[in-house]
Structure formats: C-alpha cells, structure tokens
Amino acid sequence: MSLTAKNKDTIKSFWAKAAPKAEEIGTDALSRMLVVYPQTKTYFSHWKDLSPGSAPVRKHGKTVMSGVAEAVSKIDDLTNGLLTLSELHAFQLRVDPANFKILSHNLLVVLAIQFPDDFTPEVHVAMDKFLSAVALALSEKYR
Amino acid sequence: MVEWTEEERSFIQEIFSKIKYEDVGPKSLCRALIVYPWTQRYFAHFGNLYNEDAIMGNPEVARHGAVVLHGLDAAVKNMDNIKSNYAELGELHSEKLHVDPDNFKLMADCITVVIATQMRASFTPAMQAAWYKFLSVVVSALSRQYH
C-alpha cells in the first residue's frame, strides 16, 4: 500500500494547511490517546501530569509533530529518512508498534475536528496511508 | 456485563441527539469504501463504486449508510443489553453476509471521524472515550456469533 504520486501531493498540500497548528494538533492527539486508550499511559509514568493539555503533554505533542513534519519532508524515502527516529523507538523507547496505529487514529480524529471541510475522504485516505507508512518506517529497526 | 457511568450514558445520548442518521450514515459508509477500498468487496451489487465521486454519488451507498447507522439504535436504546440484542445481527453478518469482523472496526473508525468533523471541539477526549467504548461493545457483540 505505497504512496502514489497523487497521495504525496495531497499530503503535502494538506500538511501546508495543518503545519501552522502543529503544536495544537499534537497536544490534542496525545491528550485523546491518553484518555481514550489508557494503556498508552504506561509509557509516560515519568510525567507528573497526564491530563489533557498538561505541560508535559504539550511539550511532547510538539516533539511528535516535528517528527511528522520531518516525515513529510522525507516522504520519498521514509525508511532511510526516519532511520534515526526508528533506532530511538526500537532501542531506547521500545514502544510496542501497535501503539503507532492508536496515535495515528487520534491524529486523524484531530485533523477531522480542525479541518472538517478540508479533511475529505481523499485527504483521509492519503493521510491514513502516510501515517501507516511512517509507522512502518519507525518499526524498521525493531528486529 | 458492561458497566456504564452516568457520564458515559449521557455522552452517548448527547452524540445521538446531535447527529442526523441520513447524513452521518452515508458519509461514514462512503469514507469506509474510500479509505479502506477492500470493503467494497461486500457491495459489488451496488453498481458504480469505481472512484471517489462515484461512491459519494451512489444512492445505494447513501441508503445503506443510513441502514448501518440505524443498526446502532438497539444499542443506544438499551445500553445494558447490547450483547444479547445483537445476537441476531451478528449471525446475519457471519452466516449470511460473510463479513470479516475486522471490518466492523474500520466502519467504527469512519463513523468516529465523521462525528468529529461535525461536533468538532465539543467532541471532547472524555466524550471520545465513551464513544469508543460504546462502539467497541457493539463491535464485540456483532463479532460473537462467528465460528
């Protein structure tokens, strides 16, 4: 299920609209993930406050979204482009890759909330494919 | 048995009071057929599903989208007996329609996205959690009859 040229165009132009709100999107997606899928909280036991919009959630939402931005810029070769991030997730963070799907879903929900008219079925499928491809690239170094 | 808090119950009622079946149903099914195109396997008899425009303009898809959303009525009206109330529908999907139960999750995700576009910020994280729990219970009830 690789990204077509049309998918890539759709992703880049939608991302141009979303990028200015990246921090807000990241914060909301993470907040939702922690509330709706409480098992994901296990990765953040070192945070003082896991409530929606808290300081650690904001900071980390920003971090996650800069990763997404990097992925957009390296959309033509995600596996190589995200090698360092993959090593981080595989060897240090050791996040179970099943959770990538969960965060992706919450990102899509937030994009739907923020851009109800722009997040058409065509944009939805392109973004879903993109986030799946990013998840795959992040899983590259796991085993 | 599934336990629901008063807050969860009121969230579910609130969502259903705000959405229009004839709108959310068709939009959700269209999204499923477009975002997860393998789901089209169950709708070969709907005619033209060739591209996004065809799907979104297809009256059978629209009609069926509303049918699927109405399928949630039994759950909303009686949240304490979802498992038993969906036995028949579950058997229909398994024995007659031969739908892979993984598709229920895909449909649930599409309904959630459509609701998000409509309710926007009022679809809070807590509300999303209740909604996810509600749909998970329905999906589980539908999947129970498969053997």
From TrEMBL, chain A:
Q: Which InterPro entries match?
A: Globin, Globin-like_sf, Globin/Proto, Hemoglobin_a-typ, Hemoglobin_oxygen_transport
SUPFAM superfamilies xref list = Globin-like
**Cellular component terms (Gene Ontology):** blood microparticle; haptoglobin-hemoglobin complex; hemoglobin complex
Pfam families in the record: Globin
Q: Which keywords does this chain's UniProt record carry?
A: Heme, Iron, Metal-binding, Oxygen transport, Transport
Family, similarity comment: Belongs to the globin family.
Q: Where is the Globin domain positioned along the sequence? A: 2-143
CDD domains on file: Hb-alpha-like
Q: Name one GO biological process term.
A: hydrogen peroxide catabolic process
A GO molecular function assigned to this protein is: oxygen binding
UniProt xrefs under PANTHER family: HEMOGLOBIN FAMILY MEMBER, HEMOGLOBIN SUBUNIT ZETA
Entry annotated with the keyword Iron = yes
Q: What is this protein called?
A: Globin domain-containing protein
TrEMBL record, chain B:
This protein's UniProt keywords:
Heme, Iron, Metal-binding, Oxygen transport, Transport
Any GO molecular function: organic acid binding
Name the Gene Ontology biological process terms. hydrogen peroxide catabolic process
Q: Which PROSITE patterns match?
A: GLOBIN (PS01033)
Q: Which InterPro entries match?
A: Globin, Globin-like_sf, Globin/Proto, Hemoglobin_b, Hemoglobin_oxygen_transport
Can you list the GO cellular component terms from the UniProt entry? blood microparticle; haptoglobin-hemoglobin complex; hemoglobin complex
Domain Globin, first and last residues per copy: 3-147
What Pfam families does this protein map onto? Globin
Does the UniProt entry include the keyword Mitochondrion? no
Family indicated by similarity: Belongs to the globin family.
In Swiss-Prot or TrEMBL terms, this protein is called Globin domain-containing protein
